[in-house]
Automatic annotation (TrEMBL):
The lineage of its organism: Bacteria, Bacillati, Bacillota, Tissierellia, Tissierellales. Residues 241-364 form the HD domain. Its cofactor is Mg(2+). It comes from Paratissierella segnis. This is HD domain-containing protein. The keyword Nucleotidyltransferase applies.
Length: 444
């Protein structure tokens, strides 16, 4: 099997081998190359210890990431490559890191400590593939299987349970029976994982081709209640509405898969209807309504994302999309569209449209998004024409209003709000002289 290895990686492998050490690319990059994919990054494992790695690359900038764990980063221009010494590990005492690390001169020791067989494969050009745990067979069979005893692997690092879900989702692989059972049996250990580590795996799941596969797998493993407990109430929650042919959970899963792989959109899709189980009212005809579910959903999403220590910027993007996702009236005029652009921001307005299109398509079999596609074109036209939709787009400001003998204060803002409404309806009015005339006629 021929693999393409980038030149900057070959430089490192050759330097280590020329210095008398064994060296291999290892882990996910080998797995991806076997699958015919181009790896995002490459990790190297070697028989050289950290001091020997640094001596070998004395002419390069090196960063000692963790001497006790045997990891050195070699910097080549824009490329940073992690090189880790072959190692075996002592007992894991905290469900995350080994208490001791023992350097080794045997690549088998290094591969035997890894999480899954598909990641326990090494390669170099001289020796070819090193695969003591039949990872290639599991790749061929599309199987996620732990190296050795799955309960031991998950007890060592509890996050591996969620990592199994993530790899299954990203690769479209099935989790092997014993590994699956261990995930389920040890799911409670995920309660001790830091929010940041949970967030990293969850976000990767959400950015997968079919993120609903990962959410469903978490549900089947009974870990959804640990990772995203807010979703539990949506499962099998019937909407009692003729415009919806799915329960709330299934609708959310559909929307999730139909949105583009942009994190803020995927998170908004995940939480957009999270408030529905708490806002259902049924009218005299037996039809369900969910008044205010978008406001409650915004609050629930913010709490969940704060729990995951997400950035304020990301939370704000997700919140505004959830809050606005119901504003897709078929007859929204230009002024209404401009108000929405003002509320959402021109950077996020098209992300909101992607959420709304997916939401509409997942409502029922006869869903029509023609009006949303037309609105998308209209928003492009408004933005390309630089038509005003914010007060600072007006060709007049507060000082100009004060110069017309108005006192500073509330009245200035009211006048500017009035002028913006006029200009949004008729952009040709956005000239200073015309705006001054409007002020004199209306407020003098």
């Amino acid at each position: 099997m021929d693999f393409y290895i980038p030149e900057f990686i070959n430089t490192i492998l050759n330097a280590l081998e020329n210095a008398g050490y064994q060296a291999y690319v290892v882990g996910g990059c080998v797995r991806d190359m076997i699958l015919g994919k181009t790896p995002h990054d490459y990790d190297i494992t070697t028989s050289a210890n950290p001091d020997e790695i640094q001596r070998t690359f004395k002419d390069y900038k090196t960063l000692l990431v963790g001497k006790q764990f045997g990891t050195v980063v070699v910097v080549q221009g824009r490329n940073n490559t992690e090189i880790t010494t072959f190692r075996s590990e002592g007992k894991y005492l905290d469900g995350r890191r080994p208490s001791e690390v023992f350097f080794s001169d045997d690549v088998y020791d290094d591969l035997s400590r890894r999480d899954f067989t598909i990641n326990a494969i090494a390669y170099n050009e001289k020796e070819g593939i090193i695969d003591p745990f039949n990872g290639q067979k599991d790749i061929e069979c599309k199987t996620i299987r732990c190296v050795g005893n799955p309960k031991e692997r998950f007890t060592e690092d509890h996050l591996r349970i969620l990592r199994a879900v993530r790899l299954s989702t990203q690769l479209g692989f099935e989790i092997e029976e014993n590994t699956y059972k261990a995930c389920k049996d040890l799911r409670g250990t995920l309660n001790g994982i830091s929010a940041e580590r949970i967030r990293e795996e969850l976000f990767k799941i959400l950015l997968s081709k079919n993120p609903s596969d990962g959410i469903r797998l978490m549900k089947d493993l009974n870990i959804l209640e640990i990772i995203i407990p807010e979703l539990i109430d949506t499962i099998n929650f019937e909407q009692k509405n003729p415009n919806h042919n799915k329960d709330v959970f299934e609708h959310i899963m559909c929307v999730l898969d139909k949105t583009p792989p942009v994190l803020s959109i995927r998170l908004a899709a995940l939480f957009h209807d999270i408030g529905k189980p708490h806002t259902l009212s049924v009218d005299e005809k037996g039809i369900g309504h969910f008044y205010g579910h978008e406001r409650l959903g915004t609050e629930i999403a913010e709490e969940a994302l704060l729990r995951l220590n997400s950035s304020r910027e990301l939370i704000d993007k997700v919140s505004i999309m959830i809050k606005e996702h119901m504003s897709f009236h078929n007859d929204m005029k230009d002024r209404g569209i401009k108000r929405q652009i003002n509320r959402v921001g021109k950077e996020e307005i098209f992300n909101l449209l992607e959420l709304q299109k997916a939401d509409k398509l997942c409502s029922n079999d006869n869903a029509d998004i023609t009006f949303l596609l037309e609105r998308e074109e209209e928003i492009h036209r408004i933005l390309n024409a630089n038509e005003p939709y914010k007060k600072n787009h007006l060709n007049i400001d507060g000082n100009d209003i004060i110069d017309l003998d108005f006192k500073e204060g509330k009245i200035v803002g009211e006048i500017l709000d009035y002028l913006l409404e006029k200009v949004m309806e008729n952009p040709e009015l956005n000239e200073k002289e015309k705006l001054i005339e409007i002020v004199k006629e209306k407020f003098k």
